[in-house]
Write a structure and sequence with these properties.
Layout lengths: L3 E2 L1 H6 L16 E2 H8 L7 H7 L7 H16 L7 H14 L5 H39 L2 H27 L4
Antiparallel strand pairs: 1-2
């Protein structure tokens, strides 16, 4: 596993920007120090997550545990999450820790996929029912309300990315 980040290494991952636009050219920093220095200077925080979630930096186990953490954070936003999704998180965590088999993982994946299809079907039905209301709301919003909504959404997304980055840094300390 790599423990330092520099522009030369970042370029090997073919980013959509040249790192010298943001980072000092001949500087190598530990992962934690690099993130502390550059996380707010990059064009978006997704770039930090994109960089750290690579096999060069994270083991399969750590990556899987981070993915489970992300899934559990998403499940917190659902009033009554499907038990199959919760079970999938539990088995994926157990698998990462060597306490579940690939067969158990595959079985819970199949069950969680079924849960996702069920949720998608229900969401489509609800969306059809609510389409008229949503269209009326969208038409009623003026530019100021739309701008405020966009700003609020951007702030929430940015806060979520910060939380994800903070969680990722745990794997590098």
């Amino acid at each position: 596993m790599k423990t330092e980040i520099n522009n030369e290494l970042i370029r090997t991952f073919s980013p959509c920007y040249d790192p010298k636009e943001v980072c000092e050219e001949n500087e190598s920093l530990s992962i934690v120090d690099w993130v502390k220095k550059y996380r707010n200077l990059l064009k978006n925080k997704e770039d930090v997550i994109w960089l750290l979630c690579r096999p060069e930096f994270m083991s399969d186990r750590d990556w899987r545990l981070f993915a489970v953490w992300c899934a559990r954070e998403a499940l917190k936003l659902i009033p009554n999450p499907d038990q199959r999704s919760i079970n999938a998180c539990n088995v994926a965590e157990r698998f990462a820790n060597g306490e579940a088999t690939r067969e158990e993982l595959a079985a819970t994946w199949d069950a969680a996929t079924s849960a996702a299809w069920d949720a998608a079907r229900d969401a489509a039905r609800d969306a059809a029912r609510d389409a008229a209301m949503a269209a009326a709301w969208a038409a009623a919003r003026d530019a100021t309300t739309s701008a405020a909504w966009d700003a609020a959404w951007a702030a929430a997304r940015d806060a979520a990315r910060d939380t994800q980055i903070d969680q990722l840094l745990i794997y590098f300390k």
